[in-house]
Amino acid sequence: MKIKLKVNGENKVFDVKADEYLLDTLRKNNYVSVRRGCDNTSCGVCTVLINGNPAASCSYLSCKADGKEITTVEGIPEEAAKIAGFFGREGADQCGFCNPSMALTVYAMKKELVNPTDDDIRSYLVGNLCRCSGYQGQHRAIKAYLEVE
Ligand code: FES
Ligand code: FES
């Protein structure tokens, strides 16, 4: 079946199977910043924004995304670079596998949360695992990024 998506601002038509997940549709169409980890909604590395909200693309049927706006990290180059700068300064940038999904989640967090507490930040990140860090550097980086106008 054909579905229409707006990916990073571009209108696209993809031919998908009825049981195909968005992660597979995106990766086979070269959006390879969207990563595969657990494949069962536990790790968050497949996160994309669907109509601006973070979602695990490994468990989101492509046909359900028909007509929606999808954002991968390539769609937010300036903010992603800014977020990467904060992560680097706080020593939170290690293997980088979680970076695209983390950047999208933090970007969405900044749009959604007003003056978040530390607990609000932690709650928003639930489901975004990082196998390298102890999360403290990331937390400092996110707080610094959220304070920038
Ligand atoms: S690959 Fe989707 S949550 Fe882990
Ligand atoms: S930096 Fe390696 S998984 Fe997060």
The major sheet is characterized as:
5 strands, mixed
**Helix proportion:** 25-40%
The separation of the N and C termini measures 43 Å
CATH homologous superfamily descriptor of the largest domain: Beta-grasp domain
State the CATH topology of the largest domain: Ubiquitin-like (UB roll)
* Count of structural domains: 2
Taking pLDDT < 50 over at least 5 consecutive residues as the criterion, the unreliable ranges are none
Cα-atom radius of gyration: 15 Å
Instruction: Catalogue the ligands.
Output: FE2/S2 (inorganic) cluster
Q: What's the arrangement of strands in the largest beta sheet? A: 2-1-5-3-4
Question: What distinguishing features does this structure have?
Answer:
single chain, 149 residues, alpha+beta, Ubiquitin-like (UB roll), DNA polymerase, domain 1, 5 helices, binds FE2/S2 (inorganic) cluster
Descriptive notes:
The protein has 149 residues and is of the alpha+beta class. Helices cover 36% and strands 15% of the residues. The protein contains five helices and five strands; from the N terminus they run ββαβββαααα. It has helices spanning 22-28, 77-89, 99-112, 118-124, 136-147; strands spanning 2-7, 10-15, 47-50, 53-56, 69-71. The protein has a five-stranded mixed beta sheet, with helices on one face. Helix 2 packs across helix 3 and helix 2 (77-89) packs across helix 5. The mean pLDDT is 96. The protein binds FE2/S2 (inorganic) cluster (2 copies). One FE2/S2 (inorganic) cluster binds at residues 94-98, 130-133.
